[in-house]
Amino acid sequence: MKILVCISHVPDTTSKINFSEGDTKFDTNGVQFVINPNDEFGLTRAMWFKEKQGAHVTVVNVGSTETEPTLRKALAIGADAAIRVNTAASDGFSVAKQLANVVKDGAYDLVIAGRESIDYNGGMVPGMIAGLTNANFVNNCIGLEVDGTSAQVVREIDGGKETVSTALPLVIGGQKGLVEESDLRIPNMRGIMMARQKPLTVVDPIDANAETTSVKFEKPAPKGAVKLVSADNLDELVNLLHNEAKVI
Amino acid sequence: MSVLVYTESEQGTFKKAALEVASYAKAVANQLGTTVTAVTINVDGASELGNYGVDKVLNVSNPQLQSFNANSYAEAIKQAAEKEAAKVVIVSSSADSKYLAPLLAVGLNAGYASNVIEAPTSTSPFTVKRTAFTNKAFEISQINTDVKIIGVSNNSFGLVENSGNASSEDFSPSISDSGIKVESIDKATDKVTIADADIVVSAGRGLKGPENWGMVEELADVLGAATACSKPVSDLGWRPHSEHVGQTGKPVASNLYIAIGISGAIQHLAGINASKVKVVINTDAEAPFFKAADYGVVGDAFEVVPQLIEKLKAFKAQQ
Ligand SMILES: Cc1cc2nc3c(=O)[nH]c(=O)nc-3n(C[C@H](O)[C@H](O)[C@H](O)COP(=O)(O)OP(=O)(O)OC[C@H]3O[C@@H](n4cnc5c(N)ncnc54)[C@H](O)[C@@H]3O)c2cc1C
């Protein structure tokens, strides 16, 4: 089985979010970048397939040279090869077009992407890759088994979960639940050394205009101070929620 | 050239989000000087949708669409959009709509903006405001394609009544095999879900163990709320994963979010920033959550919550 894991290079979850150039660019100053958490679950699931069932795992990112450390980290975790599509990622649709092109070129059986990236939260890349490559697609995956060319996938739905069966080629949008958090891997020294020997191929982008453009960013208005209510006076809390906040 | 809106329903009843996206579609149609066409799947609701500004309803009734399926639903909506020559297609931000929208975007070759929280700030160029960085910022985003898809965030626009009479027409799209077969569904049907809820009652590791969730559920019951939890609580198996709220869990955009025994770590706050009013109950006056909250009670959840339940019951009895 040939697996492609899409890796988004995102600010780590504790990052303070700031903007520069008149609030038109994300300010990367002092920001640490990591593998998008939703993708990390998918990468770990791919490692499981590699070790238990035999699979060749390639990781891919659309981005400029700055994203290579993130791809190297994925290699250190155990992916066999990495591809970087050499263009700055703009909107979700154009990223999906680049990735779909990589999928077609490599004839992958299974494409694992994250449900959404935690920076732009577009939530569109996995579905668009499926649409562009005519593959089956399951979103919000919290469980995945593959047997030959058929797959059984568990996906989260509002208020519960659903189990579906489908066939490869398949694209999934993965999330927490796909593997146990305790199974997530931290690269060890051996992995880091081995990653240096593994191929990281840089490919040229195809022509794909951005369908959407970021014009500007804004930060939420600063919050007023919390109104504290004494634990002995909960009538006041009920009163505030009813008369002031008007939410009950 | 009307605005097309997909109005979601469950077992023959519109979801609240359906009425919200209809309200949103009406606002966009007003800006563009056009009308609103809704597409409904296996539900007949012209009169109800008319109240929210819909002019025409395309009723799709098809047993192949009995249970949700992203591919087939996207096909149906795509064909409706083409029939109406719609330039703007509006969907909600439910898990189902977020599942089908990217497929629809490919089908219509349309730019898609998700998590949109306001009516477009301009229609030429077409510009919307959406949340990004997991609610730590907003992005003003311009959609450049001829056809545009907007995913509206729950509870962001609200319901706007726009009395009118919607006409109704049967519509039969041709649906191919979806490639996905549903084997089983495991869902608590009597519970309010986090996505639909106006009020969410959430609890964290401060509750010490799963045996203490009775009072959380009771509080949620009194308020007609959904229950949720912080990440460690679901990691520990005290509550199901589907209740985990935050950056790596579910986003919450409720009108009221009550956080009990949750510290307010940045990753948790990221998931609830879009909620309008936040109440925090925590023993630790220094808990970071108090900085994000509107109302706070510094106190022991085991004393505060049972009392609050009694006060709310008394309040509800008076209403
Ligand atoms: C990559 C990454 C992603 C993450 N994503 C998420 C996410 O999506 N969602 C999420 O929630 N977390 C997430 N986290 C974890 C997050 O950093 C915190 O660890 C977590 O939110 C803490 O949960 P908690 O507040 O329930 O527990 P704790 O931090 O243990 O806090 C418990 C709180 O309860 C209070 N308390 C104790 N006893 C009582 C009592 N009797 N009455 C009232 N209050 C009491 C304490 O004062 C404390 O404030 C993530 C972390 C990482 C690294």
TrEMBL record, chain A:
**Species this chain originates from:** Flavivirga spongiicola
The keyword Electron transport is annotated on this UniProt entry: yes
Q: Does the keyword Electron transport apply?
A: yes
Checking SUPFAM superfamilies in the record gives: Adenine nucleotide alpha hydrolases-like
Q: Extract the Gene3D superfamilies matched here.
A: HUPs (3.40.50.620)
What family does this chain come from, according to its entry? Belongs to the ETF beta-subunit/FixA family.
Q: What is this protein called?
A: Electron transfer flavoprotein subunit beta
User: What InterPro entries would the database entry show?
Assistant: ETF_a/b_N, ETF_b, ETF_beta_N, Rossmann-like_a/b/a_fold
Q: Where is the Electron transfer flavoprotein alpha/beta-subunit N-terminal domain?
A: 23-212
Q: Give any Pfam family that matches.
A: ETF
TrEMBL record, chain B:
Gene3D superfamilies referenced in this protein's UniProt entry, alphabetically = HUPs, TPP-binding domain
Xref: SUPFAM superfamilies = Adenine nucleotide alpha hydrolases-like (SSF52402), DHS-like NAD/FAD-binding domain (SSF52467)
Top-level taxon: Bacteria
Which keywords accompany this UniProt record?
Answer: Electron transport, Transport
Electron transport is among the record's keywords: yes
Pfam families reported for this sequence: ETF, ETF_alpha
Annotated Electron transfer flavoprotein alpha/beta-subunit N-terminal domain residues: 3-194
What the record says about family reads: Belongs to the ETF alpha-subunit/FixB family.
Q: What is this protein called?
A: Electron transfer flavoprotein subunit alpha/FixB family protein
Species name for this entry? Flavivirga spongiicola
